[in-house]
Design goal:
This is histidine kinase. With about 400 residues, the protein is α+β, with helices and mostly antiparallel strands. The strands form two sheets. Strands 3-4-5-7-6 form a five-stranded mixed beta sheet, covered by helices on one side. A two-stranded antiparallel ribbon has the order 1-2. Strand 1 and strand 2 form a beta hairpin. It is elongated.
């Protein structure tokens, strides 16, 4: 009950404040249509409405200070800027009648009290009239019509004020809050940025693991293998079973090193850290079973996760061209397309690449889709085969 009572004076203040701001907007309209004042004006109303309704109102970033052309361009492209401007007439159309209703009720309540208690002390021409053009000319009117006016308008203000204030506040938040589509777009942007950050952190962790394995574990295994080799040579006169155990241990260490090198190359190719994407792809093309040419454009900074995906895509595509496509030559083109990295591998093989026959295309697709990229495979029977990949580089 106490909370309900506290809402009523708050609603009255809100309506009177809205009336004042609507009147101010009529006078200051040429100033408020500018992006920065319109944004500040709208945000102030959003905070007032959220405070009245008891709902959180997230902050919005202020528009950047720029020239007139950029301001008009923002009005065409930024839905928030258009909402801020549209809020101006909506606020004036709603706040003026709502606020005037509150002023009429409160003003006539005061008039009723004034007429009921002081009519006798005022000159005849100064006695205020009640609603219905009723003149207080005696105690009978003062003690009947005036209390009736006070009671009626107090009840109207008591019960009607809060709904009017809440209605205006809801209109305000509805007009100035992003739509469902805009909220979804914003959510997708946040998820895309956080995913890119997570992928970069993952790639950095893979690089750290690769360095630790290469410089730590692999070096220790090499040392153990060397010691086992020396031990085997120095124990030439040892029993056969001892020399056999040493030989098996030495072979086991060699196999472990081979597997470790494969794990390192699969996790994060060391050549990417040493030579960058362009050098890594050039080395990859030089070592594959198909004569391949690499055309590497100006790609700018590329996230580590995107570099790794591009490297594995080219490696798998060239391997397919050699093993399945029987291609006499291949070409790799890498360039930047807007905010993405474009990788295109073409070979002059027999074509007919089928993702369901285990040609590695499914693996390429999984890696690319993990970064929200796209894969287009064109491989008619007789060739040529083209694998076109685009991976977003921005957040």
């Amino acid at each position: 009950m106490g909370g309900s009572r506290a809402q009523r004076p708050r609603a009255a203040r809100y309506l009177l404040g809205s009336l004042t701001t609507a009147a101010t907007a009529l006078v200051a309209l040429p100033l408020l249509v500018l992006p920065a004042p319109a944004h500040a004006w709208a945000d102030w109303h959003r905070r007032r409405a959220g405070l009245l309704l008891g709902v959180p109102v997230p902050e919005r970033s202020a528009p950047e200070a720029d020239g007139p052309r950029a301001r008009w361009r923002r009005l065409r492209t930024d839905p928030h800027a258009r909402r801020d401007l549209l809020w101006l007439p909506v606020h004036m159309v709603t706040a003026l009648p709502f606020g005037l209703a509150a002023v009429v009720c409160l003003g006539n309540v005061v008039t009723g009290w004034w007429a009921m208690t002081l009519w006798w002390a005022l000159p005849e021409e100064a006695v205020p009239k009640l609603l219905g053009d009723i003149t207080v000319d005696g105690w009978a009117v003062a003690l009947t019509a005036a209390p009736a006016q006070i009671g009626l308008l107090t009840a109207v203000a008591w019960w009607g004020g809060p709904p009017l204030a809440r209605a205006h506040a809801r209109i305000c938040l509805t007009m100035l809050s992003p739509s469902a589509a805009q909220r979804l777009t914003r959510r997708v942007e946040v998820l895309t940025r956080t995913r890119a950050e997570a992928l970069d952190a993952h790639a950095a962790e893979l690089r750290r693991i690769e360095r630790d394995l290469h410089d730590g574990v692999q070096a220790r295994l090499v040392a153990v293998a060397m010691r086992l080799g020396v031990a085997g040579e120095s124990l030439a006169d040892a029993p056969d079973d001892v020399r056999e155990l040493i030989r098996q241990a030495h072979e086991g260490v060699e196999e472990a090193m081979t597997e470790l090198r494969q794990v390192i190359r699969t996790a994060y190719p060391p050549i990417l850290a040493d030579r960058g994407l362009g050098g890594a792809l050039t080395a990859l093309a030089a070592g594959c079973g198909v004569p391949a040419r690499v055309r590497f454009g100006d790609v700018g900074p590329v996230p580590a996760a995107v570099e790794a995906v591009a490297y594995f895509v080219v490696a798998e595509a060239l391997s397919n061209a050699a093993r399945h496509g029987r291609a006499p030559r291949a070409e790799v083109r890498v360039g930047r397309t807007g905010a993405g990295l474009s990788v295109r591998i073409t070979d002059d093989g027999i074509g007919g690449a089928d993702e369901e026959r285990g040609t590695g295309i499914a693996g390429i697709r999984r890696r690319v889709l993990a970064l929200d990229g796209s894969v287009l495979v064109t491989s008619p029977p007789g060739g040529p085969t083209t694998i076109a990949v685009e991976v977003p580089c921005g957040s």
